[in-house]
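Researcher: For the annotation table, I need structure tokens for Haloacid dehalogenase. Please keep the output clean. Sequence:
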Amino acid sequence: MTDLLDKASKIKIIFFDIDDTLRVKTTSFMPESIKRVFSALKAKDILTGIATGRNLYGVVPEIRALNPDFLVTINGAYVEDGKHQPIYQQSFSDELVEGIVDWMKAEKSDYAYVAADDLRVSAWNDLIDEAIQPIYGTLKVEPDYYQSEKVYQMLTFSDHDDKIKLPESLVKEVRLVRWHEHSSDIVPVEGSKAIGCQKVLDQLGLKPEEAMNFGDGLNDRELFDWAGLSVAMEVSHPEILEKADYITDKVENDGILKALQELKIID
């Protein structure tokens, strides 16, 4: 515990995942203790950031009301500060999108386009509804959306998502990160939440050992390798639990507050 407290004493910014970290994905429940946490961190002059697979459209009002200092969205592909000024953007080329669409069609998979503040899907059905409704609600169908808007990420949707493999033509450009039984994020090979968070640190002149993060899913994997101190929620994927410096209680039991108090970052 002494080593953990030493790491905690160096923290100047904390990044938080949203789903099943700040709030419960399936019920939208967010404990009142989260507001207390953000207020206490501000009083201690510790900066806060959201690090999420969601885009800006998916950063729900109760999260925005916490007034985080930074938003690292779309798994690090789009980053902005608290004044809504972009810090970093990494979009797909039209050629890459077209290659992904051709591959999705060959795999008999539907797909979604993720823009900075909007989303579109190639179709709408019960399978897509089950995966995406709890996060974004019902989305508009627009198969050629990329022709008019920048795309930062795409999603697969199928009942055989675990069997879908990238073709050789795409493996050097993108990778798959599963987040749901029927869906995976399609992200740049070099893209991750850690890269987006590093862009924030570059602007602030901070080092990774001065950053802390809370998360639970496989899209937090790179963050858990990068940050000076990483905390996993009790419900986290086994790989995240293995990588964590500290494991805390679940959202409903005020896990974030408990961890920050145990690590003596806030009272």
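Researcher: And a one-line annotation?
Model: The first strand starts at residue 13 and ends at 16.
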